[in-house]
Write a structure and sequence with these properties.
The complex is a heterodimer. Chain A is an alpha/beta fold. Chain A contains ten helices and eleven strands. Classes of the chains: A alpha/beta, B alpha/beta.
């Protein structure tokens, strides 16, 4: 059995980590390399960098950041945010990213999933889906949760799998930031409809939430941001708890 | 000098920096004439089998590479780079280098407990414990995997390690100067770096 993964997610703006861990004795608190090394040392299984840069210059610094991180941290690195085409993907992979995550642009142009998977392999194409509960299911939102698309989440998940996505990063817009727990039902609905691994995101507040989304929601990985960054839990604590619950983890 | 073969798709940068971290001098092999410059050769790999064969054969690397391997140059195939060594792959119904007799097969499971691709960290059960490639690497240590196909060699004596994922599949092989791993040492943290160092150290050749 592959170990269930615990994946810290870092927001990077203009090449600097924002909302990151508050390190002590660190010259530059926003340095992506320091953060990556810290989490890698904690035995995080992978890292996700989300580029929230607003400028073209910012995107260029992201490429540099990826390059530097991949020189010191030897765990898989996923980069998401603002990726629209094959050239963006290639630039990031060449800089040392192992996977890229696409969201809005995948909905706008699903062909990018197919072309990306054909050119670089399914294992490096993660499709991020932001879902919001509706009367009868869940709806896909784009533009960081601002834009409803009318597309059903489980149908979209099946479609992106068919197009070659190697993983689905599923975020509940309803639960994100609440710390009240994952949307277990949505996670399970997607996991039951695809064969690729599903990474659960949005809503984790306790250790129990994490074991729930894995054991009941069938998630293969949990993506965590503020819980880790603000040191509510360490990666080690999370993994030790999951292990007690019978979840296979890499410790 | 460790030559890393570039055949279009795939991230060779991670392998490049990992080799450097191990104290090696990596360089990129783009064409057949670059092969001779390397004292050892790494064939990294992500992507599809048939595409890999196609782009390697377009750059005219396959035959010279096989000759280098047959002459005894240390060779490491990673993931797709391992699978390409085999006779045949179910992926795209395609023939490989045929340096290792056997087939590459697709995972097929009756339930969704085992997701495809096999993506993430899993244990390497070391079969050939005394091999120098595993110097300072404990048994059942975690390595990083990302694949939907697995190799099945005909000759069991090439098997160095196995991994359990629904079935027990062969995740590391060695045949003389040729080593292949299904996991990604360049992405497997300290143990992965240790494995690469062991490979580059060359003690396993003796």
């Amino acid at each position: 059995m592959a170990a269930i993964r615990v994946i810290p997610c870092l927001d990077v703006k203009e090449g600097k980590v924002v909302k990151g861990v508050h390190f002590e004795n660190l010259v530059e608190a926003g340095d992506p390399v320091e953060h990556a090394a810290f989490y890698s040392g904690e035995k995080a299984d992978e890292l996700v960098f989300l580029d929230i840069s607003a400028t073209i210059e910012g995107r260029k610094t992201m490429i540099d950041a990826v390059k530097k991180v991949s020189e010191v941290v030897f765990i898989p690195l996923t980069v998401g945010g603002g990726i629209t085409g094959l050239q963006d993907i290639e630039n990031l992979l060449k800089a040392g990213a192992d996977k890229i995550s696409i969201n809005t642009s995948a909905v706008r142009n699903p062909g990018v999933i197919k072309e990306g998977a054909a050119k670089f392999g399914s294992q490096c194409i993660v499709v991020a889906i932001d879902g919001k509960r509706t009367a009868g299911g869940w709806e896909v939102y784009t533009e960081s949760g601002k834009n409803p698309t009318g597309i059903d989440v489980t149908e979209w998940a099946r479609r992106v799998e068919g197009l070659g996505a190697g993983e689905i990063l599923l975020t509940s817009i309803d639960m994100d930031g609440t710390q009240k727990g994952y949307d277990i039902e949505m996670t399970k609905a997607v996991a039951d409809n695809v064969r690729v691994p599903v990474i659960a995101s949005g809503g984790a507040g306790t250790l129990e939430h994490m074991s729930q989304v894995i054991l009941e929601g069938k998630a293969s990985a949990v993506l965590l941001a503020s819980l880790l960054h603000f040191r509510k839990y360490t990666v080690k604590q999370i993994k030790e708890y999951l292990k007690e619950q019978g979840v296979s983890v890499r410790i | 000098m460790t030559g890393i073969i570039n055949y279009g798709a795939g991230n060779i940068y991670s392998v490049f920096t990992a080799v450097k971290t191990c104290g090696g001098e990596p360089f990129v092999i783009e064409k057949a004439t670059d092969l001779k410059k390397g004292s050892m050769i790494v064939l990294p790999g992500v992507g599809a089998f048939a595409d890999g064969i196609k782009s390697l054969s377009e750059s005219g690397i396959i035959e010279p590479l096989i000759r280098e391997i047959e002459k005894g140059k240390p060779f490491l195939g990673i993931c797709l780079g391992l699978q390409l060594l085999f006779s045949y792959s179910e992926e795209g119904n395609c023939r490989g280098f045929d340096l290792i007799k056997g087939d590459v097969k697709k995972f097929s499971f009756g339930n969704r407990d085992f997701r495809i691709p096999h993506m993430g960290w899993n244990k390497l059960k070391i079969i050939d414990r005394k091999n120098w490639l595993f110097d300072d690497i404990p048994d059942n240590e975690y390595f990083y995997f990302a694949h939907s196909y697995y190799p099945e060699p005909e000759d069991c004596s090439v098997i160095l390690g196995k991994t359990l994922y629904g079935i027990e599949f062969v995740s590391a092989i060695k045949k003389q100067n040729l080593v292949g791993v299904q996991f990604h040492p360049e992405k497997s943290g300290d143990c992965g770096i240790r494995f690469l160092k062991n490979f580059m150290g060359g003690k396993w050749l003796r």
